[in-house]
Amino acid sequence: MVFATPTPLPMSIADNLILGLRFQSRHADAGQRVEESLRAAFLWDEVKDRLGLSALALSGGQQQRLCLARSLMLRPEVLLLDEPCSGLDPISTAKIEEALQGLKKSMSIVLVTNNVKQASRTSDRTAFLLMGRLVELAETGQLFTSPREQKTADYVSGRFG
Question: For every residue of the chain, which 3-state class applies, written as one string?
Answer without folding.
Answer: CECCCCCCCCCEHHHHHHHHHHHCCCCCCHHHHHHHHHHHCCCHHHHCCCCCCEHHHCCHHHHHHHHHHHHHCCCCCEEEEECCCCCCCHHHHHHHHHHHHHHCCCCEEEEECCCHHHHHHHCCEEEEEECCEEEEEEEHHHHHHCCCCHHHHHHHCCCCC
